[in-house]
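hey m, so remember when u said the tokens were messed up on ur end? i reran from scratch. heres the input so u can diff it against urs
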Amino acid sequence: MTDLEKYGWQPDLAAAFKSFQEAGFAVGRVAVEHRERYLVLTPAGEYDAEVTGKLLYSVDSPSDLPKVGDWVVMSLFEGEYKAIIHDILPRRTKFSRKVAGKKVQEQVVATNIDTIFLVQSLDNNFNPRRLERYLVMAHEGGIEPVVVLNKVDLCSDLEQKKQQVSAIAGNVAIVPTSAATGAGVADLQSKLRPGLTYAFIGSSGVGKSTLINRLAGTEIMKTGEVRETDAKGRHTTTHR
């Protein structure tokens, strides 16, 4: 498996990139978005990138600009590890939400996701209505959802909670876990495959970062404390 394939590169992307490649452009995948600046992964390393003025002013909405998960066409300044983004390859899937304002706009959170883990905690944060919204967003974006019921170590009515979720989620897989004890993490790990892209979403304090650290076997995400009174956590994932 090549470095690009590890990042999720697939034959349809190669076909879309062919004409750009023949013109001398490079390709990479957006890992971090921060105010129109991007950290892009390539086989040659990580590049600090920004979009061309032409792309910036030609899009119809901010959702058409690069987002985390996008494959982008770039010119590289190799000695400086800087790049200019000229175009975006077609998105296979996207996870987006509607944002109210003068008019309702789409806000794309991430793209080209194969499976999204919808994390609910089995404490005061348990919220079936929020889960239902996430399920709709996943299905509308063409992404396979998996429901993760975290903090089983704090739950005395797991079967009842699972029944509530099943009534909403239908045939969607449900994986009970405890990020604190490691229970169920192996079941979650069994759903991961090399070369595919996964995302975790859930409200602050549900244990997303701790679960990711468990799966990775090392601390790659910062984790925050959770207040015992209301089970709310400090928000520790600060950028998309």
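this time it looks ok to me. The longest strand covers residues 26-34. if urs says something different then somethings off w ur setup not the seq
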